[in-house]
């Protein structure tokens, strides 16, 4: 180790020569010899440089030396060098209990690409996002599924706003729409295609004037359908592969996301939240269609219908489905706040009394019967129109139908004409 400090006087020198000064770090330290080599410039002899003279002298301005490199050689004595060479430090001791490389590699999670998962398909993109959240952010799998669901539903929130605006307008104009619809239905049932088409055109003009569109109410289901299918298939493939970390990536009682819930709690929660979502969602987005009540009853029965199938789904799928339903409930409740509706320019829903509506509310059985009757009438009208078209084609292309005893287009003899005239007299 070096115990001296060497200072190169680059701004001051004697007669254009570089000067190196040694200063003692401590007063009681003795001065050892140092070997200094300068790449360029003149070098003073070691005996000609005295530390006391160099420290006390006032140096005059000299020309700077360019490209000067100072190299200091190790000035340790030969005895010290031998001691350094003979003294070889011992290698560091390996700490006890350190993990082996094989154990570290074995405990690492394989990439989805090595498991045949991921890719650029919609299902693969979902799996890649799940892998990024789990590996990149070090989140458990239930947290990845919940965050992915919230992000996707937040992206679709503008479509929900547009659907709610249209649904509120259609609900507020329901009496006028029901009048036109009732007239159109009566004309269709009577077989009057002209009046039915006229009332249908009036309904289209009325909806265009009020900026109503029944298809906007289907924006959210149509947008959510491919996303739900992608999540469903992606999580099912991850559970069936299986991804080993998903075996303990759950929460509470469903720690293993690769198997179905043995307590049937997740299927029950999924069905209940789906029922509440349908009940509140259809109530806030009522339509003027005559078969809306029937469709609402069918949607209410949907959770009961799918329950036997959901009990066999892996926990990952049910976790996503339950998170999506909870988010929908929060979203519906949020959009029921008057100030929120005013902020997003959603009209206040007008409550119509059932007795003031042209189309009276019917029960489930009556609604089913009416729908079945309308379907039969529509089918009969279509069959009648098809038969009329066939008859028209035959009349235009087929042979003439004989309705006289003689051919009216053939020339008649003069005697026969006189006989006919005499008979008339």
Automatic annotation (TrEMBL):
Region described as Disordered: spans on this chain: 403-425
GO cellular-component term (any): mitochondrial inner membrane
Entry keyword Transmembrane helix: yes
Ranges that cross the membrane: 139-161, 217-235, 263-282
A GO MF label: membrane insertase activity
Residue ranges of domain Membrane insertase YidC/Oxa/ALB C-terminal in the record: 141-332
Protein name: Membrane insertase YidC/Oxa/ALB C-terminal domain-containing protein
């Amino acid at each position: 180790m070096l115990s001296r400090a060497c200072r190169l006087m680059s701004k001051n020198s004697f007669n254009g020569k570089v000067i190196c000064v040694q200063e003692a770090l401590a007063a009681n330290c003795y001065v050892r010899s140092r070997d200094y080599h300068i790449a360029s410039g003149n070098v003073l002899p070691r005996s000609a440089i005295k530390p006391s003279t160099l420290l006390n002298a006032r140096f005059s301005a000299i020309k700077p030396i360019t490209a000067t490199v100072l190299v200091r050689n190790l000035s340790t004595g030969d005895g010290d060098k031998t001691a350094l060479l003979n003294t070889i430090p011992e290698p560091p001791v390996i700490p006890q209990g350190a993990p082996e490389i094989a154990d570290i590699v074995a405990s690492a999670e394989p990439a989805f690409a090595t498991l045949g998962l991921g890719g650029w398909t919609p299902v693969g993109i979902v799996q890649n996002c799940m892998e990024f959240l789990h590996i990149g952010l070090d989140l458990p799998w239930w947290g990845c599924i919940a965050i992915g669901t919230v992000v996707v539903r937040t992206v679709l929130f503008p479509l929900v706003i547009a659907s709610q605006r249209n649904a509120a307008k259609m609900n507020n104009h329901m009496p006028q729409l029901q009048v036109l619809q009732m007239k159109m239905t009566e004309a269709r049932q009577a077989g009057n295609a002209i009046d039915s088409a006229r009332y249908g055109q009036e309904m289209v003009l009325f909806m265009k004037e009020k900026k109503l569109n029944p298809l906007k109410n289907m924006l959210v289901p149509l947008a959510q359908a491919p996303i739900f299918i992608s999540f469903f298939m992606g999580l099912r493939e991850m559970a069936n592969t299986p991804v080993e970390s998903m075996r303990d990536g759950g929460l509470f009682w469903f720690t293993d996301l690769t198997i179905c819930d043995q307590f049937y709690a997740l299927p029950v929660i999924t069905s209940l939240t789906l029922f509440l979502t349908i009940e509140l969602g259809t109530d806030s987005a009522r339509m003027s269609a005559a078969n809306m009540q029937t469709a609402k009853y069918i949607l209410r029965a949907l959770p009961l219908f799918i329950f036997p199938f959901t009990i066999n789904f892996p926990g990952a799928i049910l976790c996503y489905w339950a998170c999506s339903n909870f988010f929908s409930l929060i979203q519906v409740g949020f959009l029921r706040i008057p100030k929120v509706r005013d902020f997003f320019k959603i009209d206040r829903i007008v409550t119509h009394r059932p007795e003031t509506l042209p189309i009276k509310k019917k029960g489930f059985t009556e609604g089913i019967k009416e729908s079945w009757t309308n379907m039969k009438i529509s089918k009969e009208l279509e069959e009648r129109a098809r038969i009329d078209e066939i008859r028209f084609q035959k009349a235009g292309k087929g042979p003439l139908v004989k309705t006289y005893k003689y051919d009216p287009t053939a020339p008649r003899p003069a005697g026969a004409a006189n006989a006919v005239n005499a008979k008339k007299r």
